[in-house]
């Protein structure tokens, strides 16, 4: 009597890109809320001291913490929806690219704020990420120039393009420097992660249609 051969193992189910993007956005926004709740109720707002104070040597490591701090719940609420939407749209590009883009925005944007921001003030808040993700999506549309990437860039501009006025010094209590340099860092992230490079060792054909002016 033959014994039945075991069934081949089922391949593991892959998470959908939409589900992964939603999870990443939820973790990011949820982390911001957990941090602020902890800060307000356990530390009495004392964690805000880890914002960026430009050109203060002891504040340089705070480039890694400043985008995850807020001056109260009103500040956090104002950033929550745009952060969730733009993080979700950015994460649709893939987990690795999203994490890499976030790192570039946090580090490069924060260092630029530390170098060129107004002295004697503390810069903190997720708006650096909001402007960084907005610029990242615009940059991806520019570098890739595929219908999908361009459509996402246009949608991001339609939803939050009006916020670009925030890169101007219109309000002394708002860190327009974080907005501006977060935006710059987002463009750099898009160029680093999505700019197409010619193949190694190969010469570009000067008569190819792509090279014509």
From TrEMBL:
Gene3D superfamilies: Rhomboid-like (1.20.1540.10). It holds the Pfam family Rhomboid. It is a multi-pass membrane protein. Its main location: membrane. The keyword Transmembrane helix applies. It is found in: Membrane. The chain crosses the membrane at residues 68-88, 95-117, 123-143, 150-168, 174-193. Residues 61-195 form the Peptidase S54 rhomboid domain. Keywords: Membrane, Transmembrane, Transmembrane helix. This is Peptidase S54 rhomboid domain-containing protein. It comes from Deinococcus carri. The lineage of its organism: Bacteria, Thermotogati, Deinococcota, Deinococci, Deinococcales.
